[in-house]
Amino acid sequence: MRIARLAAAAALLALPTLAQAQSATINATATVVTALTVTGNAPLAFGNVYQGVNKPVAYADAGSGRMSIAGFNTAQVALTFTLPSNLTSGAATLPIDTWDVARNTTNVTTGAASMAVTSGTPVNANLSAGNLYLFIGATVRPGALQAAGSYSGTITLAAAYTGL
Predict the structure, then answer these.
(1) Of 103, 109, 95, nearest in space to 123 by CA
(2) Would you say the pTM of this structure is higher than 0.85?
(3) Tell me: the pLDDT tens digits for 57-90?
(4) What letters, b where the CB count within 10 A reaches 16 and e where it falls short, cover 125-157?
């Protein structure tokens, strides 16, 4: 028996030694970028409107609405407009439509690119040097018997990083 045990021990010693386990490490990194800031800079102002006479304000007109977005350089953002279908004065309504929206990377309308926007539907755009400027026009359509008054409505812009 003793010889058998010695033979078994010798056989175990003759087996190749097991390789030592290997490992490696890597770092996990992330950079949190600055939050977006959305600012309403100027209202969409139609001025005086006459009964039965449609009044458009183009995005490049002096009365156009102005908004800006500041955030992380060159990031893509999803822009979602909430656009009124009417302006109101008490119970009276004044239809507003034919939205004329453009964007630019500088705060001027020259060279601005038109955007097709639909209320509630996101559209993507890129910040340049961390900024995006939006210019908003539309048309009001007073009826022939439109009630006199001061009409208003709210245009809302929500912006969110897309992650791209």
Answers:
(1) 103
(2) no
(3) 999 999 999 999 999 999 999 999 999 999 999 9
(4) bebeebbbbbbbbbbbbbeeebeeeebebebeb
